[in-house]
Amino acid sequence: MADLVTLGGLVLVPALLFSARGVSFSGFAKIPPPSPPVNRDVPVFRMLLWSGAMVLGLALSRAEAAQGVTSAGDSLALQYKRTRALKDSLLRADPNSPLPPPLRAGFAGLSYFPPDPQYRLLGSLSVYGRRQRISVPTTNNGPALPMEKYGRLQAQLQGKAFFLEVYRSLENGELEVFFRDPTNGTQTYGGGRYVPVVELGHGHYLLDFNMCYSSYCAYNPTYVCPLPPPQNHLSIPILAGEKAFGPDLAH
Questions:
Q1: Which of 105, 107, 94, 96 is nearest to 28 (CA)?
Q2: How is the chain split into domains, by residue range?
Q3: Gap between the Cα atoms of 226 and 143, Å rounded
Q4: Is the separation of the CB atoms in 177 and 20 below 8 Å?
Q5: Of the four listed, 75, 123, 190, 225, which is most buried by Cβ atoms within 10 Å?
């Protein structure tokens, strides 16, 4: 039985488990060294870092929707604080953290833009009638990641409408957007960032860029991670969510 983590009274279950050659929801796969071959029986990598953080974030988002909460307030501030604290703790202390071991002891935590309610968006999703399984390109010329091309999300930011391609995980069915914006390579990770898409019911979907995060490749070049599709390259800077960590390792 995998370990459990509790935070704020919630139990976070590491439901997404994979070996050194496996793939997680967001496609973080370890690059196998050329020699010796990877042992398939090595301990599984516990996907607490993002699965736990996203479980917390999505649960609170859905609770807010049920209560009719639409503005940033104490509950949102607590959501962001808890999620970010969990990620920092796991990066620093989990033995299977993607952070290279020499960097863990001195790790002071990730950097973020201040929470901004203008980046917490409600949108509509046009689900494709014939959804396709596609191969998503990855960093480091790694193997493509299989995902489902699920639909097209429409939202508005700063008075401008935009569309984003939404992918669905083949492992757990969660929806996510991989995107790029003008902050990449300077203020944020060069390979783009990821943000979950939360179904609120009645045709509404939540896209909260304050919850967007970097892939494992932002911390460790021995991973391959999915790259955003060309249609998800935004012209508006997204000054929300996780900032860059260390040197830019995307290529």
A1: 96
A2: 5-104+112-232
A3: 9
A4: no
A5: 225
